Amino acid sequence: MAPKKRQRASPAASASAGTPETLTLKATSTSTDSLRESLTEMWRSEILCDVEITINGRSFRAHRVILAAESPYLNALVTNTTMKERSGPIELKEIAANTFASALEFMYAHETTLASQDELQPLLHAASLLRVPSLEAAVEAAIAQRLDPSSALHAFGLAEHLSLPVLAAAAKEIVLAHFEAAMAVEGSVLATLSAEKLGKLIEADALVVSDEWVVFEAIKRWLVQTPAPPAEVVHRLLGHVRFPRLAKHRQVQLETDELAMQYTALIAKAYREELHGEDTPRTRARYRPGMALEFDELRVGMQVRVMDDLALVKAGCEVPAPGAEEETGWDDDMANSIGKEFVIKVIDSNDMSAFLATEDKFGMNRDYCFPFTVLTTVRPPVT
């Protein structure tokens, strides 16, 4: 009987027959955590520690491989051939002993407990020096969560110095919302800010101040603490002051102010822009969340909020606004706009009002017109 014919293998199978199959096995997070816990326990018990760091007479024993893996800065020290061959400990001078103890614990356990929040800033500097991103991120987040007007300006300067975007954004938002309180407590910190960073603060529409004089005084304070800044820098900073928005008695003071008299052309330009009705950073009102708007502050494309009192808004629409020829009128569908934000589409000077982009929003079937008296500001996004 003829032998059976063997079934031919598929081309793919033939091609791979002579090549051993490879596969990758990965440890679960539990296994990884277990390894880290074991290494941390060995470190605490000083088992197989092969390197010693000393700071101001205090000794820290550790595993060379852990330090090298966690910190590029320490990697350069513990893997240096000369250092390895030399007997004795490695001395660190840039970090306090208590701060390094916390950093070292974090490098092993990925967590550490601090006695108080006063230890956060030194630890942040240590994390930056040692170049331990996970520690730096943890400290940055902890500081950001604890910010208030008494610490935000300092934190903003620190974030600039260490290039920490999360902390910078959180600190900036608080400084803008509480600028005068921050200045009262931490005004001396202004000297630590670059002209660019100070400019980013005082140019913001979201900056909340009782009067533009506060901004002008902040610049003067920065100038006192900054040795001989170039004239163009001063000019650029003063360009962020909205001089036409100064209170009347401050405008009188401006006439004899020494700094103002050196930049009369700049100030005159701001007033000229205001006189001609130009919409520029120097003429625009800063946004105060929830503050009532004046008619001349309305701009097409501006985001506004309809007041959240239905009776008040309805009454405001049923009577002529100050300076208006007639009332805007009321439609029951407009009740759906109460407390909500919209963009201004058209401004009507006859009714001292604005048509808002309400069509197809919150159940409204067209764009409705509201008098300026029922519109309030919306805090712009902090950028």
UniProtKB/TrEMBL annotation:
One Pfam entry name: BTB
Compositionally biased spans, kind Polar residues: 19-30
Keyword Oxidoreductase: no
Protein name as it appears in the record: BTB domain-containing protein
Residue ranges of domain BTB in the record: 49-116
Organism: Phaeocystis antarctica
Keyword Repeat belongs to the record: yes
Coiled-coil stretches noted in the UniProt entry, renumbered to this chain: none
